[in-house]
Every structure is written in C-alpha cells, then in structure tokens.
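User: I'm writing a tutorial on reading structure tokens. Could you give me a worked example: one chain, its sequence, then its tokens, then a sentence or two explaining what the tokens reveal?
Assistant: Sure. Here is the example chain.
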Amino acid sequence: MEIIKIIRDADIGASFPAPATYRERRASRAIVFDQDGKIALLDATKKNYHKLPGGGIDEGEDVQMALDRELMEETGCSVENLRELGIIEEYRNNYELHQTSYCFLADLVGEKGTSNLEEGEIAEGFETVWVNLEDAIKCKFIPRCPRSPAVLHTAPASPWESCLWYHAPARG
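And here are its predicted structure tokens:
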C-alpha cells in the first residue's frame, strides 16, 4: 500500500518538540459508504473532533481483521468490497507517537447496526454519524469543527486529507 500523506505537528499549526523516540502504533481505518452514498464518521461530541471508524491493530491481528473488529465495535456494521486507499503516517510529538494508518474504502453490508463502544469512546461522546462525503470534507455537519467553513477559509489540500486526518489523541 502506498503512503498518501505524512502528517506532522507543523501541518496542524502545533509546535511540540520532537521526542527522542516515538512509540509505534499501527491502525486500520475505512471510509464506509452506505447504500445512499453517505459515509460513517465518529463524532466525539465532548472532545471536539471527528475521525474515521477504525483503530489499533491488536497483537495477533492482521490489518483486515482489526478493521472488521473496529468497524463492528464503532459502527455496528460489516463491510464488503474493501479497496485500498493508502497509508497515512502521523508523527504526534506531544504523544511521542508515530502512527501508521492503513486506510480503505468499503461498502456497508446489510443494515446499519448499533455500536459497542469502549469506555473511553463513551467518555468522549462518540456518536456514529452518516454524512455526505462532500459535507464530511468540509466538516459542514460539525459546526465546531476547526475545518468548518466558518473557521477554515481555504479548502483542504485534497478531498481525502480532511477525511483521513483527525484531531484525536491516539487510542483505538
């Protein structure tokens, strides 16, 4: 899979000093389309960020196994027609973290289910929202989003950049 974006603190206006070493973390995420062409996003209502569904790859899992597990936990959904999108690398100096996210496009199978969120996700107010891709890119569905038209006066560098980039501390 090809690297499509490397994100560093400076890219988001932060200036944390680089750590001596980074903790390595691998994750898998997907842009999941429903039958109406809407995509699933997780809105952390109490922490003012959003992200694609997906998360950390646990020991003994491969990328797809982790993705299937995380999608079921966070959205209550299964997917099919998995297509590689690319790799996003993030260097988060303030968390001493280098995260490699394997990103995919996928289609919802069957009905939208009920999420089974972890305690930390519940504490952050995670809600699964299904939005038009265009609205997700512009953050039109989250008025407080730093990339919403009211806050961001220039367009993202690419349509996938604002979808794949999120404002959260790393966890699952």
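What the tokens reveal: The first helix runs from residue 63 to 75. The chain has one domain: 3-164.
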